[in-house]
User: Fold this.
Amino acid sequence: MSSQPIAARPAFARWLATTNDITRTFLAAGRIPGLINMAGGLPAAETYPVAELAAIACDVVAAHPQEVLGYGPVEGLPELRDALAARFGSDALPLTRANVLVTSGGMQGLDLIGKVLLDDGGLIAGQFPTYLGALDAWRPRAPTFRNLMIEDAGFDAVAALAGAQFAYTVPNFSNPTGRLVGVEARQALVDAAHRTGTWLVEDDPYGTLHYDGAPLPRMLELSARSRPSGPYDGPVIYMGTLSKEIAPGLRIGWIIAAPEMIAALTLAKQGSDLCTSGLTQRVALAALEVGLIETVQPRILATYRERRDALCGAMVEHLGGWFDWEVPVGGMFVWATARDPSLDTDLLLPHAMAAGVCVAPSSVFDASGLNRRAIRINFTLNEPAKLAEGVRRLAQALMTMQARPG
Ligand code: PMP
Assistant:
């Protein structure tokens, strides 16, 4: 081979050194026949509004052929940006289309934020543990991570944000822990962002997957209250997606932020994909106009609530001696921490796979890879009986590991 091997290139080698092989193992688990995949964060396909989307797609191609089949504006379809500004804005939070960028899924938003805000080796203050996709999006810049321990008593938000290029949080039913960040901590983060000038990313793919209780105010809203007039120009960068509300295959996400930030992200998007698909943007706009989210939401919530309860019931039966966890009030995951601090969930993974089940070990949600005592279990993809069987297999894997640790 004449060209230089990719792995020998310093930037790629540096990037590769910070990835975790375990990630590849569990991401591939969905393709193994017979294996119960409780590792991924996948929605239940039976909740997709297939007939409604098929009808909408036919209509929009017929009605707007040039727009849906051609290139569109980098920022996104103006009408969709207006609709998103209307959905998230209010008198207290004035938003215009200049506050909105349409992205190709939430993942692209994370990538663009890294492109705009992160220098090589720059400092990210990230909620701990952190969404794996965010770590992956930013790894090419080999950032330094400061863990935000938001739930700890005495958490000092100003000290945590000071000097970081941005802070990253998933306050609603975090991926991976499924927990909610409380209102006081949200307010403290917002105040700290205003004080320190650090951009505060609020990644919110799960906000509408709320099974018990009432939703908490977004940090975007809390941030606007301290600046009551004019289009929003505060430090919060709010991100959303249709992936969990309708279907991930649409690849429609959005960023809501100060116009200056939207302009910078637009420049980054131009060099990334020129524009998000006009077809799925039109589908998304029509879906918002006919209230498709509200139509499918009861079905999604009922399905996921039942599955959460089935998973947690099976966990009580089979895993109570091994792990501690909280029943999540929303989202897609249960985060379970081993009672025995020496239990290594990276080592549990091969035993689990051999027993025919896969869960996500905690190391992949830690930039340092050191947190190896917990697992993330998804409850949205599988039916209740399969969840119960998966938990039974996991208990079997734990017993095998205990008997044959090597
Ligand atoms: N952020 C978080 C926290 C997520 O869990 C996900 C999806 N797993 C995303 C962003 C990206 O979602 P998508 O690209 O499908 O919109």
Q: What stands out?
A: The chain has two domains: 19-41+294-403, 50-290. The chain has a mean pLDDT of 94.
